[in-house]
Design a protein that fits this description.
Blueprint lengths: L2 H4 L2 H14 L4 E2 L2 H5 L6 H14 L3 E4 L5 E4 L5 H9 L5 E2 L4 E5 L5 H12 L4 E2 L8 H9 L22 H11 L3 E4 L2 E4 L1 H9 L2 H15 L5 H12 L7 E3 H10 L10 H14 L3 E6 L4 E5 L9 H4 L10 E2 L4 E5 L4 H10 L1 E4 L3 E5 L2 H7 L5 H11 L6 H13 L57 H4 L6 H14 L3 E5 L2 E11 L5 E6 L14 E4 L6 E4 L4 H4 L11
Antiparallel strand pairs: 1-3, 2-3, 4-9, 5-10, 6-8, 7-8, 9-11, 10-11, 12-13, 13-15, 14-15, 16-17, 16-20, 17-18, 18-19
Helix pairs in contact: 2-4, 5-11, 6-15, 7-8, 11-12, 11-13, 15-17
Length: 558
Amino acid sequence: MNQWEQLTGEARLVLRCCLLQYGSQWMPETAPRRLLQGRLSGVEVVLACRELLRTGWMKSMHKGWGEVRYAVPERYMGQLLQWMLHPPEFAGELSGCRMVAEASGRVTGQLLHLMAGMYPKGLQLTLKGALHKKAQQLLNERSPFALVDGMDAIHSESAAALDSYSVVFELLVYLGMLRLEERRYAIDEAVLNGWLARSNEERLVILYDWLTAHHRPDGVAAELLASLLQLQSSSAGRWINVSAMLAWLQAHRAAGAVEDSFPDEAWNWLLQLSRLDLGDAAVSDEGTLLFRWSIPVAGLPPAEQARAGEQSEKQIYVQPDMDILVPLSTDHRIRWLLEIWTERVSHDRMSVYRLSAQRFTSAVAHSSPESFLLMLKRTAASGIPEHVQLLLEQWCREWPSSVSPGDTFGQEGRGPSLASVSEPLGPEIPSRKSLEPSALPAEEMLFAGLQQVPLRWTQMDGAYHPSTARKLVEQAVQWETKLALSIAGESRIYIPAKVEDGAPWSVSGWFVSAPTAEDSWPPPSLCSLSPDDWNGMRIVVPPPEVWIHSSSDGRDML
């Protein structure tokens, strides 16, 4: 039994309706009651919300003026969609499509190029604590997003585009890569060493986590699409029919009424994924939206499996003309030293770095040339041409460094070991247990005055005089609970909403209907009853163990 099945049926229904209507966006505390009107009684909604808050499937937030809002944590959306709706497989084989946005494979390398440009001086700050213009210029010029026409407004309805440097700065902060010092942000070498030691697949998953944490698409339907698309990332390398996925979500009324901008937001999200090297976006000959994941992003791959193929030491090619050819899959720890000691000429499937005296002299101030030469000897697939090695040794004699090989950042032994970087970078994801709610409903306000109500009103069906029957109905309305009515020899469950005066008096409410299928629930229909319409009745009160729990602040949701 999974965690979804362990919830009560009422809690699952509330969670399902809230997720499909609001996604992970904040909702007013009255929203669950409104969504379930005519299906669950008010007290059932309260108990369901309390169960969801207590178990962490929903979270709460208090506004300064006393308002409370609820939300489904974003990280559970994909799994909940899987459990609730059982989506089909949308991936398959395809022939004939037009590529619109293709993963370049260069984003993590360009991000490394940016970090090397920041090392060791970091990002300078002004006297007021803002990023210096030179720091902004560096972030703009070496932005990993500039390779794909920059990072424009990620939300289709945004009023203004995000500045490229601010987005890159945000990413560096998310990675924990920056350490605030006096008048500058310096690179945290321990974090950088962990980043370099990761596989490229792990780095891409971290970039995906950043994108979803800070730039998830606007609109509930588009947000649900992003979660559904993530579920299908296990089909990496196969084309996913996004148009069919959109239609499927619309059929399930993923956000009540699907927004007009839904397709545009969906397409915009596919483009952002492509810009981060997470996949390719295309359109079929019939106009179908398609997406193909580069890697699975449902979770980080095992460290040992992810790093397979990246541990070879013979990965670069030193040329007689002082150029160094570097394949795209080269270990980032090797790339880091090349970024520090050489000039990058081009960055592509096969990057080109060039040895130069100017770059060499600037690197000796904070790195050991002996460590750099040792790396070249270990990783040059065809060795180092003799005249190139003689020239490098001459440079070492002319510009000696005060930094010992053991103190050169990026070398083995400096910073954390591979075994210590198996945990993901970025903000720590709290467990569901840590999401203990700050506002649970007070149980003393549920069924207030129960001890003063005759026992038979809640424990057995009975026929009552119309005046007494009205008291039972009014009590059920006050408690926001159901009535069990005997009508024509059949027991019916009724949710009373309002008692109307008259001769005779009447009550308006809803008969509770069972769903015709998992995804099909008859729309509730308000109906009016008078005491002559039933011949037996009882107030439905759940067993005390269902609704008596400890409450943190005594707040009444009723």
